[in-house]
Amino acid sequence: xxxxxxxxxxxxxxxxxxxxxxxxxxxxxxxxxxxxxxxxxxxxxxxxxxxxxxxxxxxxxxxxxxxx
Length: 68
Description:
It is a single chain. By secondary structure, the protein is an all-beta fold. About 0% of the residues lie in helices and about 20% in strands. It contains no helices and 2 strands. The protein has strands at about 15-20, 30-35. Strands 1-2 form a two-stranded antiparallel ribbon. It is extended. The chain starts with 15 loop residues before the first strand and ends in a 33-residue tail after the last strand. The model has no long low-confidence stretch (mean pLDDT about 85).
């Protein structure tokens, strides 16, 4: 980000699936972002493990995505 702007806040009004965010200065700095309409999410640890906990009873479809 330019020196005069050190923060950005964006509010989404609807779900968005997998869009890229990148740095225009450092090409190795990038991320993929998704906006979901659910409070139930998790992310993995550095070793690749994750824990799914505190889910209400029910049937779920679980999806995982990895860039590589």
